[in-house]
Amino acid sequence: MSSLKFNQIALQDICDSIAMNYGSFFENLNHVPAQKHAQDVLSAQKVVEKLKVLQHFTGDIRGQTLLEIGSGYGVFVAVTRLDYGAYSFGLEPSSTGFSGSVAVSRRLMERCGLPPQLIIEGVGEHIPLQSDFFDLVYSTNVLEHVQNPRQVLHEAMRVLRPGGIAQIVVPNYGSFWEGHYGMLWPPYISQRYAKLLVRLAGRDPAFVDTLQLVNLCQMRRWMGELHPHVEILAWGEQLFHKRMTSGNFSAWAALGRVQRIVNLARSLGVAHAASWLLRRCDAITPIVLTFRKR
Q: What InterPro entries does this protein's entry cite (predicted)?
């Protein structure tokens, strides 16, 4: 994707900074090199892949107002602004998570010739923006890190305009994979036993305390509270089936390990059956919730 404007911007110093902080932290968790984590975080191709999933429901996002809840280092905001013509904003907390994410993302905005104020300090439970404003709300791998996932879903709905679409991507802890640690995971395990499992695997168990072990049953219950104000468009079952049966997904972070498992299932001729069983058991992962505000 060398034609993207974002890819023409020199970001090596920012990449090195992210590798030292975010990358090193996750290298200790999942044994994926820090530099790979940083490069993946700054990858425009990763944003392109996310947008293909989102635009299946939204169509062209040019001219649309878009809020990313949990914008991290700001790459999604920058790419959607520079290369997709969206009026994108990011919401990122400054006092939790990885120190300096707001400062680094604002630095990235300036490097891209964008106003640093596009990154707004705040948390998803209390979005400091007006109601009924955004055409689109997007969030990925954030809901498992917040204090109150249910409240974040309510806030996402609040700031959407009527007819607007939100897409929330979150790991399913009713499934068999934990992406932060990059390891197989028993579904519906409690935090107590999750910490024991992680310790037995030789990983740092403290990170488990920062996770909300969200599952698909919980998500359905929380979204049920918003009925009839929202229309559920998808939970991600079709996308999961496509990835399971084709093996066609990128090896971001520790997903190369998942690719090997999926390819083994495909070579044994059991990928379709495994996909069917996992979908029947609400064990798809990630959950890709897409809804429209009525």
A: Methyltransf_11, SAM-dependent_MTases_sf, Thiol_S-MT
Residue 169 forms beta bridges with which residues?
Answer: 140, 288
Tell me the C-alpha distance between 73 and 92, whole Å: 9
Integer Cα distance of 249 and 199 in angstroms? 29
Instruction: Tell whether pTM > 0.90.
Output: yes
Neighbours of 115 (CB within 10 A): 11
Query: Can you tell me which residue has the tokens 């798809």?
Result: 284
* Partners of 123 in beta bridges: 126
The strand ranges marked E within the chain are 65-69, 87-92, 119-121, 134-140, 160-170, 177-178, 183-184, 230-234, 287-293
- Residue 293 · residue 233 · CB < 8 Å: no
- Of 177, 165, 243, give the one whose Cα is nearest residue 215: 177
| Three-class DSSP category at 79 | helix
CA distance linking residue 292 with residue 178, whole number of Å: 28
Q: What is the pLDDT of residues 20-30, one digit of tens each?
A: 999 999 999 99
Radius of gyration of the chain (CA): 18
3-state SS of 40-69? Answer: HHCCHHHHHHHHHHHHHHHCCCCCCEEEEE
Question: Domain coordinates of the chain in residue numbers?
Answer: 6-174+212-241+287-293
Q: At 76, list the tokens.
A: 């999604």
The architecture (CATH level 2) of 6-174+212-241+287-293 comes to: 3-Layer(aba) Sandwich (3.40)
Question: What tens digit of pLDDT does each residue of 55-95 get?
Answer: 999 999 999 999 999 999 999 999 999 999 999 999 999 86
Which of 55, 80, 48, 52 shows the shortest CA–CA distance to 66? 80
